[in-house]
Write a structure and sequence with these properties.
The protein is an alpha+beta fold. The chain is built from seven helices and 15 strands. It starts with 19 loop residues before the first strand and ends with a strand. The structure holds zinc ion. Zinc ion (ZN) binds next to α1.
C-alpha cells in the first residue's frame, strides 16, 4: 500500500485519487505541470487546499497579484473577509491615508478598491488620520496628540452612516456634529496605494509545502519518507514547531541577474540544493518572482549523497516550466 509523504499513513489506492500539484493550480496552469500521484493522500490534499492554499491564494500579496498579472479573471476574485492579513491604504489624493479593500465589481468587470468603514480625524497638519471602527481612539488620546476636535471638518466618517458614526464616537467620549457631506471626486483610473501584509505561519507552511513537494517530485517518495524529514513534514501538515527557523524571507531575486528593486521576469521560481555545510538541504520559492522564501528543509543529514541541485522557472508568458540549469 502506498504511504503518504505528509501524514505517513499507509492507505489503500482509493485514498490516493486526487492529484497534488507541486505549485498550487491557483497560481497558474503550465504545460507538463509538476504533479504528484500516489504520494500525497486525499485527506492531506484536501487539508492543504482548505487551510494552506486558500490563505496563500486569497490573502497574500502574491495571491492578489494573480489578478494584476491576469493569472485569474477579475470575476474570480474573492475577498478574504474579516481578519485579512492584507491592509491597503491610499497614498494620494483627497482620501490619502484611508483604508480600502479589493472587491470584484460587476459594473466595471474589474477588481476595484472600496473603502472600509472608518473615521478620519483632522490632525495639526490639516490632514485626516484614519482609524478603523475597531481601533477608534478615545477623546483623551486625540487631545494628547493635539487633534483639533473643535474644527468644522474635525471628523470625517467613511462608509458609515451618520447615526452609526455618532454612536461609535459617543462610545469613545467624542461629540459629533454633522456639518455636511464630503462628496468624493470623480474616481481616477488608478490610485497609488500602500499594501501591508502579514505573513504568518499558515502562509509559511503553504510555501514550505511547495518546496517539499518540489523535492518529492524530483527525488521521489522513498527519500522524502526518511525520518529526518519528519520535522519539516509535521510543520507543514500539523503546524508543529520544528524547533529551528525553517523559513525566512528576503528581497533578493533568485536569478542572479535580476535586481532587488525593479523589473524581473514574470513567473514563479522553485529551487533545491545542499546548503554550504554539505549536510543540510535548502530550498527557495518565489511566487511572481517577488519575495524569496528561503527554506531549511532538512538539517544534518547523515545518509548518502545524492544530486539535489535543481531549479525551475514557471514562465507565465509561455506557460512552460523552464529548467534553470539548461536555460
Ligand atoms: Zn496524508
Amino acid at each position: 500500500m502506498p504511504r503518504c509523504a505528509y501524514c505517513l499513513d499507509e492507505k489503500a489506492d482509493e485514498h490516493f485519487r486526487k492529484t497534488e500539484h507541486v505549485l498550487p493550480l491557483s497560481f497558474g496552469t503550465f504545460e507538463n505541470n509538476f504533479t504528484l500521484r500516489g504520494t500525497v493522500c486525499d485527506e492531506c490534499n484536501q487539508y492543504f487546499g482548505n487551510h494552506l492554499e486558500l490563505a496563500l491564494a486569497r490573502d497574500t500579496f502574491e495571491g492578489h497579484s494573480r489578478f494584476t498579472y491576469g493569472v485569474k479573471d477579475p470575476e474570480e476574485f474573492r475577498p478574504f473577509g474579516r481578519g485579512s492579513r492584507i491592509i491597503i491604504k491610499i497614498l494620494e489624493g483627497p482620501f490619502e491615508g484611508a483604508y480600502v479593500y479589493r472587491e470584484y465589481s460587476p459594473e466595471t468587470a474589474n477588481v476595484i478598491l472600496r473603502p472600509l468603514p472608518q473615521v478620519g480625524f483632522l490632525n495639526s497638519s490639516d490632514k485626516y488620520e484614519y482609524f478603523l471602527l475597531d481601533d477608534l481612539p478615545a477623546e483623551s488620546q486625540l487631545r494628547e496628540r493635539s487633534f483639533n476636535l473643535k474644527h468644522r471638518r474635525a471628523i470625517c466618517g467613511i462608509a458609515i452612516d451618520e447615526d452609526a458614526l455618532r454612536a461609535k464616537l459617543a462610545e469613545k467620549g467624542i461629540d459629533f456634529r454633522h456639518h455636511g457631506e464630503f462628496v468624493a471626486p470623480q474616481k481616477s483610473e488608478s490610485v497609488l496605494c500602500e499594501v501591508e501584509g502579514t505573513i504568518d505561519q499558515q502562509i509559511f507552511r503553504a510555501i514550505a509545502k511547495v518546496a517539499f513537494n518540489y523535492l518529492l517530485y524530483w527525488q521521489g517518495p522513498e527519500f522524502l519518507l526518511e525520518t529526518p524529514f519528519n520535522l519539516t513534514r509535521r510543520y507543514i501538515r500539523y503546524g508543529e514547531n520544528p524547533g529551528y527557523k525553517l523559513i525566512a524571507v528576503r528581497d533578493q531575486a533568485i536569478l542572479a541577474d535580476e535586481p532587488v528593486v525593479g523589473e524581473r521576469r514574470l513567473g514563479h521560481l522553485i529551487t533545491s540544493n545542499w546548503a554550504g555545510d554539505g549536510v543540510s538541504i535548502v530550498g527557495q520559492v518565489s511566487i511572481f518572482n517577488w519575495a524569496t522564501y528561503c527554506l531549511s528543509l532538512l538539517r544534518d543529514y547523515a545518509g548518502g549523497r545524492r544530486d539535489l541541485k535543481s531549479g525551475h522557472f514557471f514562465d507565465l508568458s509561455s506557460r512552460r516550466i523552464l529548467d534553470l540549469e539548461t536555460r
